[in-house]
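Record now logged for everyone:
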Amino acid sequence: MSDFSIYFQLGWQHILDLNGYDHILFVLVLCCSYTLKDWKRLLWLVTAFTLGHSITLALAVFKIVKVDTAWIEFLIPITILLTAIYNLPKRRTQRNPWVLYSMTLFFGLIHGLGFSNYLQSLLGQEASILVPLLSFNIGLEFGQLIIVFFVILLSELMLKIFQVSNRDWSFFLSSAVFGISFIMAIERLPL
């Protein structure tokens, strides 16, 4: 198996890992108010998250940035919580897309630091880290697109088959994710 495929697989498995479901929750709440017709916006949002994630992974791997892991583990559910709050009072059409893109990019920076120690230890054995880092991030993007696909499929099912309004569906998912991320944040509070 080539280095590219090993790190590509590690990237998508990282995002789809049910034991570390914080990324799944983030992508879920990020795209829960969108429908199939909004696929381009979703692609940009997910890519903004991957870009932020990639930047901090690279900075950490090159030992330019080092942050206390306890604080990052606390901040990750805070990013999920804030994204859920952003969804609650507004209709999708009332949200400023640049605020959401900027917020998603920034939150990607935080999430990238959450995985940087593990990836740094793996890449420490590599002679060249550029290809593994790139392939990991491509795998990350692929995994996020799988989550987006399932969320959009579920959303379409709820909106078209069960006639749930987009606003109610987004409110339901955002509220559920808010509750889960709030508990996660309390459990991870660094003291």
